[in-house]
Amino acid sequence: ISVHRQVQVPMIQKVQKEVQVPQVQYEDVVVEVPIQKQAHVPMIQKVQKQVEVPQVQYEDVVVAVPMQKQVQVPMIQKIQKHVEVPQVEFVDKVVDVPVQKQVHVPM
């Protein structure tokens, strides 16, 4: 026995839809671009020139310089000499001094 099945496949429908697209505006910007120019550079020449240089003359001057002389100084010697000093003798003397006493008298 053979069995047949039926399968339903959905249908696809195409529908057109209007979409708003934003407008694009282009703005031009002016940019200055430097231009390379060729310039003529003058040539430099080196020329030798004769220059007179004054001569320098040295003159020596004689100056008197004081000389140092050596002088002999005599030596000094210290000699000890014995001197006799007289002896001084102190003698103490006892002296009686009277003392006054004060007596207190009651009133």
List the helices and strands and how they pair.
Blueprint: no helix or strand
Strand fraction equals under 5%
Uncertain runs with pLDDT below 50, 5 residues or more? Answer: none
Give the helix proportion (percent range): under 10%
The largest sheet, given as strand count, sense and whether it forms a barrel, is: none
| Rg over C-alpha atoms, rounded to the nearest angstrom | 71 Å
**Mean pLDDT over the full residue set:** 86
Give the N-terminus to C-terminus distance in angstroms. Answer: 178 Å
Task: Please give the number of β-strands.
Answer: 0
How many distinct helices? 0
Broad structural category: little secondary structure
Basic shape: elongated
Could you characterize the architecture of this molecule?
The protein is low in regular secondary structure and 107 residues long. It is elongated.
